[in-house]
Design brief:
Layout lengths: L3 H23 L4 H19 L4 H25 L5 H31 L2
Amino acid sequence: MNSLSHGFLFLSGLTWLLCEVCFDAGAGYWTPVWLFLLGFTVMFTVMGCLPLSEKTINLAGPIFTILIGAGIVLYGFAAFKAGFLGAALRLLGGGVLILLAVFSLLGREKEGAAHH
């Protein structure tokens, strides 16, 4: 991650998505948990274990944040059956994650262009 705020954004979204999949597991639907664990393993293999350049890590962070935000947005659409407020908050939160990750990607490209 290229800054503390992006790292906080990433970890907040990751924690939120983990809570959502754990609620599904509590209801007896385990597929999201297995998908989360698979994604978590891939994510931290790419970002923490493989010897990749800092530029690659700074690209992977926002991409994974977009995927996390998309997962929360999907939970938001599914939550409309239970109630409007919870679904709207999930859509808003997931949308904000996606938007800030896209801004992070765009800011990263401008930084790279300024250094050349």
